[in-house]
Design brief:
This protein is of the alpha/beta class and 232 residues long. It is built from 8 helices and 9 strands. Helix 2 packs parallel to helix 3.
């Protein structure tokens, strides 16, 4: 009996380690409060419809979206913690992830660690409550394009529509106003040879983008509080 139990534990640990390695996800269920929290990490570059090279650290949206659907459908998982350290990436994939997180009926908290740049900003604000570590950064800039542009007026109109979707999502899910957000996006004096703004830690909170400065301890504490409040 003891050997069977030990074998099951080893198998569970192996499956847990493999899941973390492959998808950056794990269910936290050893907190002593009988509350199951699902951890999702958004790291490196957010990969869209095209595969990036094998040397790049990526978050694959085809891993994240099914997991979020499973979380919503699960009777056991009670909350979601999203750890973010991303340079940005595919706009459509990033927005899809942000929309899925925002539509969850279960409490969710995000924590910005190294950075939440570009399309990482909508993901950071998509949760019910957000934290950023003191040295965490957020880069806000307009949608960029590269390569040959065919049909210039139509292309610029398309990019404007994409930008409006991003701006609308961010402003609807945090405390910053549209005018201020667009000012930060088009600032020319902060990023070298580019436009945009870098916000560090407390600055992101002061602008109303992130709720609070804090680390994993505060993020976990807040999520447990929200879970308890939602079950009353």
């Amino acid at each position: 009996m003891a050997e069977e139990k030990e074998s099951r534990q080893k198998e569970e640990e192996q499956n847990r380690d493999e899941r973390i390695e492959k998808t950056g996800q794990v269910t936290l269920n050893e907190n002593g409060q009988l509350e199951n929290i699902h951890l999702i990490s958004i790291i490196g570059e957010i990969e869209g419809h095209e595969n990036l090279n094998s040397n790049s650290k990526t978050t694959k949206y085809e891993h994240i979206l099914p997991s979020l659907a499973a979380i919503e459908d699960s009777k056991d998982i009670q909350g979601v913690l999203v750890l973010i350290n991303t340079m940005g990436g595919d706009v459509e994939a990033g927005l899809a992830i942000a929309e899925m997180i925002a539509s969850l009926s279960k409490p969710s908290v995000s924590l910005v660690l190294g950075g939440s740049h570009s399309i990482g900003v909508p993901i950071a604000v998509s949760t019910d409550y957000s934290f950023i570590v003191p040295t965490g950064t957020m880069v806000i800039h307009p949608v960029r394009m590269s390569g040959m542009v065919i049909g210039v007026p139509q292309t610029f109109e398309y990019f404007k529509l994409i930008q409006d979707r991003i701006t609308g999502f961010v402003c609807n899910h945090c405390g910053i106003g549209k005018n201020i957000f667009e000012q930060l996006m088009t600032e020319t004096g902060i990023l070298t040879k580019d436009v945009g703004t870098i916000l560090v830690g407390e600055e992101a909170v002061k602008h109303g983008i992130i709720n609070e400065v804090g680390g994993i301890d505060k993020a976990m504490q807040k999520l447990h509080e929200m879970i308890r409040d939602s079950s009353k």
